[in-house]
C-alpha cells in the first residue's frame, strides 16, 4: 500500500489518518471532505486518478492542517514517530511539511524500524529537510523542479531562498547541477527533475530526458509538480521500478497537461481530470513496447 | 540495522543546525527583548555568540528556525524590535536570492523570485496562479491570493510564515512595481 504524508491549508484541520477516496472534485478522508487545490490534496488526487488505471488500492494518507506556522507539521511528525514502526507500507511519499531537521531525523529513525523498508519518495518541504539533514541518500526518489535542484546542488543552502547566485538555476545547467547534488550527497538514489525538459537521473548520470509534449503555459500553473509526484507514487506502488516510474510519470503528466489545453490561469484540477486518459495511453504504449521486445 | 547506522553516523551537530538562522540586533538589550517576545510566542530560540563575520559590536545573536523567518520578522516588527539582519547559521555570508525572472505569456505575466512564481492576468490585474515552493504556507497563500486583484490581495508578508512566503513576497513586490506603479 502507498502512504502519503502532507498538509492541507486550513489551520483547524485535525490530524487524520486513513484511506482516501475521491468523489468528483473532492477528497474524502475519515468522513472529512477536502477540496482539491494545489499541495498535498492535488498530489493525492493525481495518485488516485493514476491508481485507478493501474488497479491500485486507495492510498493511505496522514494529513494535518498547517498554514506555515509548523504547528500542524510538528504534531504530524510526532504522530509518525509513534505509529510508522507499527505499519506496513510498500511506498511512502512525503510532501508539504514544515522543513525541520530534528523532526525529520526522528521520522527517519521510525522508518528504519519498519520491516520491510518501504520505498521512500520526498518532495516539497520534506525534501528540503531531508537534504538539510544530510540524509538524502536514505531516499529512493526526490522530485525537485530546477530551482529546487539548484538548492540540492548548493551544499551550503538551508533553503531554496538562500541558494547562492553562482549556482542559480538555469535550465541549460541541469546536468551540472545533478552532478553537484550527488557529489555532495544531497540527492536521493533517483531524481526526477521537473522543468521545460524533465530529467531522470541517478548517481551514474542522466538516465533519460523527456521534452515532449512541451506545453509552455503549464509553468505558471500551481500544482503540476504535485501531480507528477502523485503519479510517480502510484506507479511505484504498482511495483514498477522507481526509474521507469519516474520516466512514465513525466510523460503522463505532460500529456495530461496537453489534454487540458491550459492557459496560465488554469487550475490544477483541470489537469488532474486528464490523468486517466494520459495514463491509459502511456501504459498501452509501454505494453506494446514490452510485447514487441518479447516477440523478438 | 544498516539503515539506522547510516543515520547515526551522519547525524552531526553541524547537520542539526542546518535549518537554523541567526537574528542580529543593534545591541544586547534588543536581543533580550526579542528573545522574550519570541519565547512568549512559543518559539524555540537560543541566545548565542555570533560568528566573527557578522559581529557588529553586539556580542549576542538569537538562533531560531530559519524556515519561519517571515513569521518571526513580522512578530518582532510588531513588537518594535526588528533585527538588523537575518543570516543562516550554516553560512552567515549567504544572502537571499535577489534575482527576478520575468516571463511574458501575452495576456499573462509571470514573475519568479527564488523558488516562487506569481502570475497575473494583465488586463484585469488579477492574480491567476501561485506556483513553486515547498513550505506549507504556499498552498495557503495560493488559496488566499488567487482570483483576487493584485491591488486587493493580501501581501504574502502579512499572512505567510516561511521562507517560501518571503520569496513570494519579493515576487509580489516586483509585480506591483511593474504593474501598479504608484
Largest interface: A-B, 69 and 64 residues
**How many helices of chain B does DSSP assign?**
7
How many runs of DSSP E, i.e. beta strands of chain B? 8
Annotated CATH topology of the largest domain in chain B: Enolase-like, domain 1
Q: Can you give a write-up of this model?
A:
The complex is a heterodimer of chains A (296) and B (182). Chain A is α/β, with parallel strands linked by helices and 296 residues long. Chain A has a single domain, classed as 3-Layer(aba) Sandwich (UDP-N-acetylmuramoyl-L-alanine:D-glutamate ligase), CATH 3.40.1190.20. Chain A contains ten helices and eleven strands. Chain A has helices spanning 40-54, 71-83, 101-112, 124-132, 146-153, 174-183, 224-237, 242-259, 268-272, 275-295; strands at residues 2-8, 16-23, 26-29, 32-35, 60-65, 91-94, 119-122, 141-142, 190-193, 198-202, 205-210. In chain A, strand 6, helix 3 (101-112) and strand 7 form a beta-alpha-beta unit. In chain A, helix 7 (224-237) crosses helix 8 (242-259). Chain A is globular. With 182 residues, chain B is α+β, with helices and mostly antiparallel strands. Chain B has two domains: 13-88, Alpha-Beta Plaits (2-Layer Sandwich), CATH 3.30.70; 100-179, Enolase-like, domain 1 (2-Layer Sandwich), CATH 3.30.390. Chain B is 36% helix and 23% strand. Chain B contains seven helices and eight strands. In chain B, the strands form two sheets. In chain B, strands 2-3-1-4 form a four-stranded antiparallel β-sheet, covered by helices on one side. The interface between A and B is large, with 69 and 64 residues.
